[in-house]
Design brief:
- Helices cover 34% and strands 12% of the residues.
């Protein structure tokens, strides 16, 4: 009887055992190539993915009289009262959702910027292009496809590597030649964003860097653990078994490295919100940054996420809760980077499947959209500014792909990603290696960081 990789891992107890790292799609593990003179200085990128498609139409709202009146008329039951919006001092013609007070303060202080109308694109696109179905990303308005396309920055869901993974492939041996852990860490499970061809990320359970737990009872767990350990020393000659042996050994090694690094450090004094899953993830990232010198890293990439933004019904209450959690969590994280003295070396940014249709549906919700607004924050961000072009809020207007307010992006997710990659250390000559679709756009750097 044949056995697939998923079954093999289950039998070996590795998946059930909650291993720290390495249960990944096959590919070479990071070799941590040695270099005599790695570049100095530390930088980190932190992705916060808003799964489900955040309705950015209610995150950033026109505040001037004409703009707000037009917004309120078209949004109908989803319109936010103007007196509840947080008018931005830095951009008085716009207001943020009332659940984003911390983000509002970060924008006005210059520590955060807003990027308007970003989405997956194959090239600059107009309403006429869309009507003719010319050169469009695959499966627009599909959660699964658009999540993958944001994460791989190739505008095709079939690409098997993420843009963070490809950066690690390219930069790992140069920036982290003696690192004891991979360049990329996810605190939100397995995700395409982190996958490279020659590197494998770390996967950490927030609050449990050792990560070796089992929820099936003492007897079952003991059997599974014994079986897993036997596989580690089993030399079968079969590539499947041998590859998983290496993966499992790396999982145990990384668990040891992380446990030792965090065992003797004083907790950060920055308070993180309780009962906030995203805050728990970002607090774990901050702790790993606190002990970065123990790992020998000059560059790190992190992935965190918050879900349930697919608000087809009763959107107002649901989005208010989620945006409130996001605002409080990322603000606490920014304060933690200030405490660590690395606020200018850490850039946090949002991604999401897509925005929502501007026209509400019949269930007091909104359906899948396209172009969305995003938040970037950190000490290196050129904040207090809106980058890009805010869409014309007109159903069947010049920026509408159809008739219900699915805005055609004016900025590609590839341009957004390449701007972050350039700050991280990717040279202009290397950008096309990571972002093959970038050549379709005139600008490779949006200038927000």
């Amino acid at each position: 009887m044949g056995i697939n990789r998923r079954s093999f891992i289950q039998y070996a107890s590795l998946a059930a055992g909650g291993r720290l790292a390495g249960l990944r799609p096959f590919g070479a593990l990071n070799a941590f190539a040695q270099s005599s003179a790695p570049p100095s200085g530390y930088k980190a990128l932190v992705c916060v993915f808003l799964f489900g498609g955040n309705d950015a139409n209610n995150m950033l709202v026109p505040f001037d009289t004409v703009g707000y009146d037009n917004y309120a008329r078209l949004r109908g039951p989803l319109a936010l009262p103007q007196n509840q919006l947080l008018q931005l001092a830095a951009m008085p013609d716009y207001g943020l959702h009332s659940s984003l007070p911390e983000i509002s303060r970060l924008v006005d202080s210059g520590s955060a910027a807003l990027i308007a109308n970003v989405g997956t694109l194959m090239g600059p696109t107009t309403r006429a292009n869309f009507a003719a179905q010319l050169n469009l990303p695959a499966n627009l308005f599909s959660h699964a496809d658009q999540q993958l396309q944001w994460q791989n920055a190739s505008q095709s869901a079939t690409t098997s590597t993420g843009w963070a993974g490809r950066m690690s492939d390219l930069l790992g041996s140069r920036f982290n030649p003696s690192a004891s852990i991979p360049m990329i860490t996810s605190v939100a499970g397995d995700t395409l964003f982190c996958d490279g061809q020659s590197t494998t990320p770390l996967a950490v359970s927030p609050g449990n860097v050792a990560g070796v737990t089992c929820g099936e009872g003492t007897a079952v767990c003991s059997v599974r653990e014994e079986m897993a350990q036997s596989f580690l020393s089993f030399a079968s000659g079969l590539s499947l078994v041998q590859a998983d042996n290496v993966i499992s050994q790396n999982a145990d090694r990384y668990a040891t490295v992380l446990t030792e690094a965090v065992s003797n450090i004083a907790p950060l004094t920055t308070p993180f919100p309780a009962n906030n899953p995203l805050a728990t993830q970002l607090q774990q990232i901050a702790q790993l940054m606190q002990v970065r010198s123990s790992f020998g890293v000059n560059r790190q990439i992190f992935f965190a996420s918050i879900g349930n933004f697919d608000t087809h019904a009763n959107q107002l209450a649901q989005q208010s809760l989620l945006l409130g959690q996001t605002s409080a969590a990322v603000s606490a994280f920014y304060q933690a980077t200030q405490e660590l003295g690395i606020a200018s070396e850490v850039t946090t940014f949002t991604m999401s499947d897509f925005s929502r249709a501007f026209q509400p549906n019949s269930n007091k919700g909104s359906d899948h959209g396209w172009g969305s607004h995003h938040i970037v924050l950190g000490g290196a961000v050129k904040g207090a500014k809106l980058y890009g072009t805010y869409p014309t809020l007109a159903l069947a207007g010049p920026d509408d792909s159809d008739r219900n307010g699915r805005w055609i992006p004016s900025i590609s997710s590839v341009q957004y990603a390449s701007t972050l990659a350039s700050w991280f250390g990717v040279s202009a000559a290397q950008l096309s290696l990571i972002f093959p679709a970038l050549g379709a756009f005139s600008s490779t750097n949006l200038g927000f960081v």
